[in-house]
Design goal:
The complex is a heterodimer. By secondary structure, chain A is mainly β. In chain A, 0% of the residues lie in helices and 53% in strands. Chain A has strands spanning 3-5, 10-14, 19-21, 24-26, 31-38, 44-50, 56-58, 64-68, 73-78, 87-95, 103-104, 108-113. By secondary structure, chain B is mainly β. Chain B is 0% helix and 49% strand. In chain B, a hairpin with a 5-residue loop joins strand 7 and strand 8. Classes of the chains: A mainly beta, B mainly beta. The interface between A and B is medium-sized, with 26 and 31 residues.
Chain lengths: 114, 117
């Protein structure tokens, strides 16, 4: 079975500062990796995904994540955060060819302050 | 285009009661999955349905059941409610089942917040 660990439950950061949200996974088979964002009282929105190819993936709003197979990590980064980035971020994994079942981490609350 | 819709938005029940949650997938999507998100935790997989058949089940008791209708909408039923069933229940739809190296992106609805008193 696969699992996801998000070590940081909360990350406070000042606006325009860089941020990294950490995600490590465990699986005995190949996986696909995802970052989802959840704003208060809303469902989940896909931020970015790694399926294959380049290990660096980017979102349209400036976030990027890098798949590191040797370290089993998929950390999320943004060079300059905005107040509107305040939300809960979830890392998730699914095994390749295993249907759509997603296994999520416990989430990281990103709080951007002025 | 309409996204995934869920009803009701909020629900309050008492212990021992039964509840039915509803989900309408994106038009053309044939697969629906259900997740439970307890406050402060990540979503946990409950069920996946495709073409009206159960294709996956998470580690949940038999009090939890679901079905998918010919129009691909879905219902999640929970019997004999416990306080611990209080959570946000999320529905996700995707075009189909993933096979081989393919992945079908899942689109999540806004959820139904269930409170059990």
């Amino acid at each position: 079975a696969q699992s996801v660990t998000q070590l940081d439950s909360q990350v406070p950061v000042f606006e325009e500062a860089p941020v990294e949200l950490r995600c490590n996974y465990s699986s005995s088979v190949s996986v696909y990796l995802f970052w989802y964002v959840q704003y208060p009282n809303q469902g989940l929105q896909l931020l970015l995904k790694y399926l294959s190819g380049s290990t660096l993936v980017e979102s349209i709003n400036g976030f990027e994540a890098e798949f590191n197979k040797s370290q089993t990590s998929f950390h999320l980064r943004k060079p300059s955060v905005h107040i509107s980035d305040t939300a809960e971020y979830f890392c998730a994994v699914t095994i390749t060819g295993g249907g759509n079942k997603l296994t999520f981490g416990t989430g990281t609350q990103l709080k951007v302050e002025l | 285009d309409a996204g995934v819709t869920q009803s009701p938005t909020h629900l309050i029940k008492t212990r021992g009661q039964q509840v039915t949650l509803r989900c309408s997938p994106i038009s053309g999507h044939k697969s629906v999955s259900w997740y439970q998100q307890v406050l402060g935790q990540g979503p946990q997989f409950i069920f996946q349905y495709y073409e009206k058949e159960e294709r996956g089940r998470g580690n949940f008791p038999d009090r939890f059941s679901a079905r998918q209708f010919p129009n691909y909408s879905s219902e999640l039923n929970v019997n004999a409610l416990l306080l611990g069933d209080s959570a946000l229940y999320l529905c996700a739809s995707s075009p189909g089942l993933a096979g081989g190296l393919n992945y079908n992106e899942q689109f999540f609805g806004p959820g139904t917040r269930l409170t059990v008193l």
